[in-house]
UniProtKB/TrEMBL annotation:
<keyword id="KW-0963">Cytoplasm</keyword>
<comment type="pathway">
    <text>Porphyrin-containing compound metabolism; protoporphyrin-IX biosynthesis; coproporphyrinogen-III from 5-aminolevulinate: step 4/4.</text>
</comment>
<feature type="binding site">
    <location>
        <position position="207"/>
    </location>
    <ligand>
        <name>substrate</name>
    </ligand>
</feature>
<dbReference type="InterPro" id="IPR006361">
    <property type="entry name" value="Uroporphyrinogen_deCO2ase_HemE"/>
</dbReference>
<dbReference type="InterPro" id="IPR038071">
    <property type="entry name" value="UROD/MetE-like_sf"/>
</dbReference>
<keyword id="KW-0456">Lyase</keyword>
<dbReference type="InterPro" id="IPR000257">
    <property type="entry name" value="Uroporphyrinogen_deCOase"/>
</dbReference>
<feature type="domain" description="Uroporphyrinogen decarboxylase (URO-D)">
    <location>
        <begin position="140"/>
        <end position="156"/>
    </location>
</feature>
<dbReference type="GO" id="GO:0019353">
    <property type="term" value="P:protoporphyrinogen IX biosynthetic process from glutamate"/>
</dbReference>
<keyword id="KW-0210">Decarboxylase</keyword>
<feature type="site" description="Transition state stabilizer">
    <location>
        <position position="76"/>
    </location>
</feature>
<comment type="subunit">
    <text>Homodimer.</text>
</comment>
<comment type="function">
    <text>Catalyzes the decarboxylation of four acetate groups of uroporphyrinogen-III to yield coproporphyrinogen-III.</text>
</comment>
<dbReference type="GO" id="GO:0005829">
    <property type="term" value="C:cytosol"/>
</dbReference>
<keyword id="KW-0627">Porphyrin biosynthesis</keyword>
<dbReference type="GO" id="GO:0004853">
    <property type="term" value="F:uroporphyrinogen decarboxylase activity"/>
</dbReference>
<feature type="binding site">
    <location>
        <begin position="26"/>
        <end position="30"/>
    </location>
    <ligand>
        <name>substrate</name>
    </ligand>
</feature>
Length: 345
C-alpha cells in the first residue's frame, strides 16, 4: 500500500493528522513569474492547456516552490464545452467567451462522440505528471460540475446574475435536463480517462451552485453530481472524490449526504464551528482561507489561518483556500502561509 504514505490520501480516507495536508486552488497561475514565462512561450492560455509538456511544467512549478501535498492537473473546466463543439476563446483580461446556447434547439450544436480527440493531450499531461511528481505528492484530476459548466455555455461568458441560464432551467426543465445529461456523460468519460492516465483523486468544481433556488440546487447540482460520483465509483470504487459546492450554505449537509462525495470543499463564508460539529462528522473537509488574506500576508492572515486550523484540525481536514488564488498574490506570502501551517500554526 505505497499510497498510504501520502498525507493527502490519508486525510481523504478520514484520518485526523497533526499537520493537515496543503494545496491551493489555482496554485499554478499568474501570481508566479515562471507561470507567466511558460504561458508566454505557449501562446494563448488554451494553447498551454493542450500542450502536455508545458502544462506539466506549470503544474510542477508551485510544487518546486512550496512542496504542496497535491498537484492539480493544469487545464480548465471549459475544455468540456470546447470538446463538445462549442466555440471557446479566452480574451486577454475578459475571461472566457463562448457562442451561447440559450434553448433546447441550440443543443444540436453539441456532439459527444469526438470528445477524446480534443481532450487527448490533457490525458497525456496527466500521464506525464503521474511519473513527474514527487513520491509524497498526490495527483488531482478535475472537472467542472455540470451546472457550473452550463452557466458558461448558456451565458456565453462569466455572469453576475445568471439570468439566461436560470430562465432556461426554470422555464424549460426538460430541455435543460438534456444539456445537463450531455454534461454528466461527457464529464464522466473525461474523468474516467484522467483516472486511467494516473489521477489519484478527483475534484468537482461547482463554483456557481449558490445562485439556484432550493429545488434548483437539488435538481441541477445534487442530482448530476450524484450521477457522476456513481459512474466513477462503478469503475473505481475507491477513488476519492472531493466536491466543492461554492456558496452552498445550508445545502452543505444534503450535498454531502446525497451526492456520495468523499470530502467537501468549503468556501470562506461557511461558519467553521458548524462545520466541525456537523459536516466534518460525515467526512473530511477542505478549505477555506479567503484568498484575499494572501495579498497582505501579515498577522491577520496568520490569525485567520490559526482559527481555521484550531476549529477544523480535530477531524479529517485538508488546508486550502475558499476560492482560487488571485494573480495579485505575492509569492512570498504563499511561502509564509505554508511554513506557518507546517510549523504547527
Ligand atoms: O487550480 C489549478 O491550479 C488548476 C488549473 C485550473 C484553472 N482553472 C486554470 C486557469 C482550474 C482547476 C480551473 C477551474 C476553473 N476554471 C473554474 C472553477 C474554479 C473557480 O475558480 O471558480 C472556473 C469557473 C474556470 C473558468 C475560468 N478559467 C475563468 C472564469 C477564467 C478567467 C478568469 C481568470 O482567472 O482569468 C479562467 C482562466 C484560467 N483558468 C486561468 C488559469 C490559470 C488564467 C488564464 C491565464 O493564464 O490568463
Amino acid at each position: 500500500m505505497p499510497n498510504q504514505k501520502k498525507l493527502f490520501l490519508r486525510a481523504l480516507a478520514g484520518e485526523t493528522l497533526p499537520t493537515p495536508p496543503i494545496w491551493l486552488m489555482r496554485q499554478a497561475g499568474r501570481y508566479l513569474p515562471e507561470y507567466r514565462a511558460t504561458r508566454g512561450e505557449a501562446g494563448s492560455f488554451l494553447d498551454l492547456c493542450y500542450n502536455p509538456d508545458l502544462a506539466c511544467e506549470v503544474t510542477l512549478q508551485p510544487l518546486r516552490r512550496y512542496d504542496f501535498d497535491a498537484a492539480i492537473l493544469f487545464s480548465d473546466i471549459l475544455v468540456i464545452p470546447q470538446a463538445l463543439g462549442q466555440h471557446l476563446a479566452f480574451k486577454q483580461g475578459e475571461g472566457p467567451q463562448l457562442d451561447p446556447i440559450r434553448d433546447q434547439a441550440g443543443l444540436t450544436r453539441l456532439n459527444i462522440d469526438g470528445i477524446h480527440d480534443v481532450l487527448g493531450p490533457i490525458y497525456e499531461t496527466v500521464a506525464k505528471l503521474s511519473s513527474a511528481i514527487p513520491e509524497h505528492t498526490t495527483l488531482i484530476g478535475f472537472a467542472g460540475a455540470p451546472w457550473t459548466v452550463a452557466t458558461y455555455m448558456v451565458e456565453g461568458k462569466g455572469s453576475k446574475d445568471f439570468a439566461n441560464i436560470r430562465r432556461f432551467a426554470y422555464g424549460d426543465p426538460d430541455g435543460f435536463a438534456k444539456l445537463i445529461d450531455i454534461l454528466v456523460e461527457a464529464t464522466t468519460q473525461y474523468l474516467l480517462a484522467q483516472i486511467k492516465a494516473g489521477a489519484e483523486v478527483i475534484q468537482l468544481f461547482e463554483t456557481w451552485g449558490g445562485v439556484l433556488s432550493e429545488n434548483g440546487f437539488h435538481r441541477w447540482v445534487i442530482e448530476p453530481t450524484c450521477k457522476i460520483v456513481q459512474n466513477i465509483k462503478a469503475e473505481y470504487p475507491d477513488m476519492p472524490i472531493i466536491g466543492f459546492p461554492r456558496g452552498a450554505g445550508l445545502h452543505l449537509l444534503d450535498f454531502k449526504n446525497l451526492t456520495g462525495v468523499d470530502a467537501v470543499g468549503l468556501d470562506s463564508g461557511v461558519p467553521l464551528k458548524w462545520v466541525a460539529e456537523n459536516l466534518q462528522k460525515l467526512g473530511p473537509v477542505q478549505g477555506n482561507l479567503d484568498p484575499m488574506y494572501l495579498i497582505t500576508g501579515g498577522d491577520e492572515m496568520l490569525a485567520e489561518t490559526r482559527r481555521i486550523l484550531t476549529t477544523l484540525g480535530n477531524g479529517p481536514f485538508i488546508f486550502n483556500l475558499g476560492h482560487g488564488i488571485t494573480p495579485e498574490t505575492p509569492p512570498e506570502n504563499v511561502g509564509k502561509l505554508v511554513d506557518f501551517i507546517r510549523n504547527g500554526g
